[in-house]
C-alpha cells in the first residue's frame, strides 16, 4: 500500500514536469528561425494561394501561445496530431518504434549480459594483466565517438562486402523464407549493434568494476573473509548485492534511452528507426512530430527513473524502510 | 616496469596498424577528368516507341533492341522517401516521382528533342484553344478494367479542375480567371477547351490519369478525405495503375519496391508485353555519402555523382562493372542577385539603404559586377570542371534557350570602364567610391551549409573586391535567408539557385512577372502591388503573357528569346554556372539511353539485363 501511494505521488509529480518540458520545447522550436514553409516559398511553381492554404493548415498564422494551447489540448486527449505532410504522427512513430526497440534491446541485453560479469571479473582480478587489458579496451570503447566508429565500420563493410551497407532489410526481403529473413535482419544488425555495444559495454563494465571494488574494500567484506567464508560466497552473497544498487539506477537511464539513445548511429547506418525520423523532423521544424518525440523521451525518462526507484525499494531494505517512512 | 612499457607499446602499435589499415594511400591527383559528351551520342540512338495495333488493342511498340525478361534494377532517392502515393496530392519531388511511375499521363516528353509525344493517348490534335485527344482502344488498368474517356474526363473535371489535392496544376492554368473545360466526345475521344490560346496547357496533359472506379468514392467524400487518400499506409494491392510498374512494397525509411504491371500497354517487336524488369527498387538513403557507399558496395545500380566523386569514379570505371555517363547540363541555375527594391516598408523605412539603391539600380554597376565575375574559374575550382558558365535565365538544356546570347570572359577593365561611366571613382587606397563619395560596401548572403554556394560566395567576394568594393560575405541559415528574400526584403546581394523547367519557361512566371511571389530582385509585397514598374520589367511582363498565349513553338520562342536578352543586358540576376549531371550505371543494363531532358529512367520499361551477366 505504501508503495502504491509512493508511485501515485511520483506520477503526480511528473505532470508539472511534463508541462514545463513541453512549454519550453514548443517555444524553442517555434521561436527558432526555421520556417517550415521555406522550401515551398522558394519553389517557383507554388502559387500564393497554395502558400496561404499551407500556412492556415499548419496553424502558422496564429500566435504561438494559441498554437501551443491547441497542441496541448489534443495531446492531453491522446491525439498526437499530424505531421507537416499530413500523415498521422502516431502512425509514423508506430512504424519506427519497433525497429528502434529491436536495436536498443539487443544492445542493452548484450551489454548487460557481457558487461556486468566482465566488471565483476575485473574487480575480482584487480590489478592483474586481465584487469589491465580490459581497462585499456574499455578506455578505447569510451573514447571513440560513436559516429566515427560507425563510419569506420561502414567503410569496412564496403571494402569486404561481408555486411550490407546500412538499412535493416535487403531489397528482396519480401520473397525470403522465414529463416532467410531472420538471417537477413541479423546481418543488417551486426554493425550498428557492434557500435552501440562497444560504447555501452565500456561504461557498464567500468561502473560495475568500480562499485564492486568499493564494496570489496569495506569492513564487512573483510570481516566475512576473516570469518573464513568462501571467496565465492563473499563476492556473490555479500559484496555483489551491495554493489548492484547504482547499477539499478543506471538501468533506469538505459530504459529512458531505449527510444532515443541510438540516434547518431541510426543516422550513419541509415537505420529506419526513430532517431532518423526525429532528426529529419527537427530539420523541417515539423512541430507535432518533434513535440511527440520530445514528450516521449521525457515520459520514458520519468518512467525509467520510477522503475529504478521501485526496483531499489525491492532490492535494498535500507531504502525500503527509509522510503516507507517518508511516504 | 619494463613489462608495462612493452605492453603500452604493443597496444600503441596495434592502434597505429589498425589506423593504417583504414587509410588508403592517397592517389596522386590526376588532371581534371575530361568527360566525353557520351550521353548525346547514345541518346541520339534512342528510338521513340510507335503505335501498333494488335487484335483490336492499340499498343505502343518499343523500337529498341529486344531483351530478356526478369531482373531487378536498384535506384536510390535521398531524403525521407515518399509522403503519399496519390499523384494528385504530392507536394515534393520524391512523392511525385514515386507516384508518377505508376500513373501515366496522356502525353509525355520526348526525352531527346523535348517534343510532346502521345503516351496514354494514341494521338492528339491541337487547334487554337481546342485539344482533341484520341485514346488507345482496349488498354487496361492493372485490375483489368478498360481505360476510357470517362477516366480522363473524371480526372480532369472532378480532381484537377475541381481543386482536389495539390492545386498547382489548376493554379497554373487559370487563364484570366477562367479554367479550361473538358468534354467527352465518345468512349475514346476527349476534348479540352482553354478560354484562350494557352501554349503551356499541352504539357499539362502529361498529368497522370486516375482510374475513375477507384478515385470516385474518394472524391465523393470531399477534399479533406482526398488529402489522406492513398497515403503511404495503403495496401499496394489496392492501387489501380496504368504505368509500367506498380507498387509492391513500401518500407518506411528503407525502400520502395515496384513490380511489373501485367497489363501495361507497351510491347516489344516480338509482341511480348513490357516491361522487361521484374522489379524496380528505390532505396531511401539519408545522404550522398551513404548513397556512394551503397553503390560501391554493389547495392545500387545507378547513382548521380557530384564533385570529387566524379574523378574517383572515372578512375574506378576502368576496372569496374559500371560506366560513367555525362548527361549534360542540369536544369538548376545558380545566380547572384542584387536587391533593386526602392520602396519603403510599413514603418516608412527603406528596405534598402538609399545610397545602395543608387548602386544596385544602376545597370552599369550590375554589368560591372557581371564582368568582374570569373565564371570559368568557378567552374574549374568549385564544380571540379563539371559545369558550364551560364548567362541566361533559361538553363542550358532548355529547348527555349536563346543561343544568340554569347558567353564572354571576365574583363576587369571593361568593368572599371562601366563604373567610371556612372561616376564611380577610386581613392588612393583603391577603394571604390560613388559620385557622392560613399565607399561601396554591402552584404552578400547565401544559405549556410550549401558548400557549393558558400564557395561561390568566397570567389564572388574576391572578384568584386578586385573592383575596390567591400563585400561582407555572410552565409546564413536557409530559412532566415528565405525570410529575408520573400518577407523582410532587407538584403543587398544574394547567391541563390532555382530549378526551372527546360521545356516550359512559363513555369518561371512567379520569378519574372513583376507581381510574382519569387520576383526576388524587386519583390513586391501585397501592399506594393501597384507600385511603379521598371520599363524592362514591364516588357518582361508583356513577353511572358504573350509567350503563354502564342501556341506555335517558333512564335513562342521569339517572346522568350527577347526576355532572355533583356535579362542578359539588364542583369537583375547575374547567372554563374550550371552544373553538369553525371551518372554511373552498371554495364549489365541494356537499352540505356540517358538524356539531359529525360534522365536515366525515361524508358524504364525497355531497360533489361544483358545476356553476359
Describe what this molecule looks like in 3D.
With 327 residues, chain A is mostly helical. Helices cover 77% and strands 0% of the residues of chain A. Chain A is built from 15 helices and no strands. In chain A, α5 (89-124) packs antiparallel against α6, α6 packs across α8 and α13 packs across α14. The longest helix of chain A has 39 residues, at 178-216. Chain A is globular. The model of chain A has no long low-confidence stretch (mean pLDDT 84). Chain B has 613 residues and is an alpha+beta fold. In chain B, 30% of the residues lie in helices and 22% in strands. A 5-stranded mixed β-sheet of chain B has the order 21-20-22-16-23. In chain B, β8 and β9 (189-193) form a beta hairpin. Chain B is globular. Mean pLDDT of chain B is 88; it is low at 26-33. The interface between A and B is large, with 52 and 59 residues.
Question: What fraction of the residues of chain B are assigned to beta strands by DSSP?
Answer: 15-25%
The general outline of chain A is globular
Mean pLDDT of chain A: 84
Strand-residue proportion of chain A? under 5%
Task: State the end-to-end distance of chain A.
Answer: 10 Å
Distance between the termini of chain B: 62 Å
Number of helices of chain B: 19
Give me the Rg of chain B, rounded: 27 Å
CA radius of gyration of chain A is 25 Å
**Largest interface, C-beta closer than 8 angstroms, per-chain residues:** A-B, 52 and 59 residues
CA-based shape of chain B: globular
Low-confidence parts of chain A lasting 5 or more residues at pLDDT below 50?
Answer: none
Strand arrangement, major sheet of chain B: 21-20-22-16-23
Number of strands of chain A: 0
The major β-sheet of chain A equals: none
Report the major sheet of chain B: 5 strands, mixed
Structural class of chain B: alpha+beta
